[in-house]
């Protein structure tokens, strides 16, 4: 082999190796742009005793000053309507029968029970989404990775003074990559649900070493491509992110241009991907939240295109501006 040919092969090998390293670097998730000084402003507190462990929130698209919230596991199948301060909505004609607010548990009247959901079960409601006048309630909590009855309720949004309604349908779901119950790798809990033009998505929450109380970074994004009601729908795995903190809620912006993913101490904002699918592969912007203030942040929704509303399991209500800074 000539010296010239050997030299050409060496150069070619170096170029190929460089190309492989570049491709690998492009698949890795880089650290998101950090917003250093967000202002998390508390706007209220939810004093109504039956709302004991808020786990999801959405703003109504057709009723003024109405947000829908729900409790975590252990509650009855129901949702509550609250206003911007966290006060629960109760119809005036029910005030003689029901008490509301901080003193409801001490009153001789029964506490306002919220909107009861007929033909439904509450195993572990973790998030709620809205599109137009339809609510999507995710019974998707799966701490021990052993549930075989995960599902999403589809509900026509009730009038906020209603006492009861029933879901239009229940969509049973399963993960395509979970082969055993409990799973070998505990990557099949979920606390985050969002809807995009009628299509539902679920973000998983992972646990380390089959320990319920030990979460670890990373999430997988699944899409619901079918809507069977009498058989289980198998989700489609569409994307993943290995370094994001464990997601506790998600919400798509009103215009659909950004996805907010909440963790206990941060919010990650992902711009809409060109293919409308690989949300976690876009370049996010991270907003750190003061942990002493946000505490166990569990729910997020958009008040408008530039404002997020966040609640925690301690029932505090916050808003934070997500307007881009000048440098962005």
In short:
With 328 residues, the chain is mainly β. The protein has two helices and 26 strands. It has a five-stranded mixed sheet, with no helix packed on it.
SSE map:
Layout: H1 3-27, E1 33-35, E2 40-45, E3 54-59, E4 67-71, E5 78-82, E6 98-99, E7 110-111, E8 115-117, E9 127-131, E10 134-139, E11 151-156, E12 164-165, E13 169-174, E14 189-196, E15 199-207, E16 215-216, E17 219-223, E18 233-234, E19 236-241, E20 249-252, E21 258-262, E22 266-271, E23 285-288, H2 291-294, E24 297-304, E25 307-312, E26 316-321
* Rg on CA atoms, Å: 22 Å
Classification by helices and strands: mainly beta
User: What is the architecture at the second tier of CATH?
Assistant: 6 Propeller
Succession of helices and strands: HEEEEEEEEEEEEEEEEEEEEEEEHEEE
> Largest sheet, if any?
5 strands, mixed
Mean pLDDT: 90
Q: From the 3D structure, determine the CATH topology.
A: Neuraminidase
Number of strands: 26
- List the total number of helices: 2
Beta-strand content estimate: 35-45%
Q: Between the first and last Cα atoms, what is the distance in angstroms? A: 55 Å
Strand order of the largest sheet: 1-23-22-21-20
């Amino acid at each position: 082999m000539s010296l010239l040919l050997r030299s050409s092969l060496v150069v070619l090998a170096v170029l190929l190796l460089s190309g492989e390293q570049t491709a690998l670097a492009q698949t890795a998730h880089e650290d998101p742009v950090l917003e250093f000084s967000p202002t998390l402003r508390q706007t209220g507190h939810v004093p109504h005793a039956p709302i004991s462990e808020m786990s999801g929130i959405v703003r109504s698209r057709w009723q003024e000053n109405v947000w829908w919230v729900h409790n975590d596991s252990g509650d009855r199948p129901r949702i509550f309507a609250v206003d911007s301060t966290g006060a629960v909505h109760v119809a005036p004609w029910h005030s003689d029968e029901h008490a509301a607010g901080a003193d409801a548990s001490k009153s001789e009247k029964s506490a306002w029970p919220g909107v009861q959901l007929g033909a439904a079960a509450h195993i572990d409601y973790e998030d709620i989404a809205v599109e137009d006048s339809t609510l999507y309630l995710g019974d998707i909590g799966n701490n021990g990775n052993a549930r075989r009855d995960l599902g999403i309720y589809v509900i026509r949004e009730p009038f906020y003074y209603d006492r009861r309604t029933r879901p239009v349908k229940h969509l049973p779901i399963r993960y395509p990559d979970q082969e055993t119950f409990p799973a070998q790798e505990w990557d099949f809990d979920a606390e985050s649900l969002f809807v995009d033009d009628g299509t539902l998505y679920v973000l998983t929450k992972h646990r380390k070493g089959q320990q319920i109380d030990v979460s670890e970074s990373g999430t997988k994004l699944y899409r619901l491509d079918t809507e069977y009601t009498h058989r289980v729908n198998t989700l489609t795995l569409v994307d993943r992110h290995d370094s994001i903190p464990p997601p506790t809620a998600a919400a798509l912006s009103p215009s659909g241009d950004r996805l907010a993913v909440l963790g206990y101490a941060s919010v990650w904002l992902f711009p809409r991907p060109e293919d409308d699918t690989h949300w976690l592969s876009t370049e996010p912007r991270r907003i750190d939240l003061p942990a002493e203030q946000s505490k166990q942040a569990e729910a997020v929704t958009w008040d408008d295109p530039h404002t997020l509303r966040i609640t925690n399991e301690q029932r505090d209500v916050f808003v934070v501006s997500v307007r881009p800074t000048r440098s962005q």
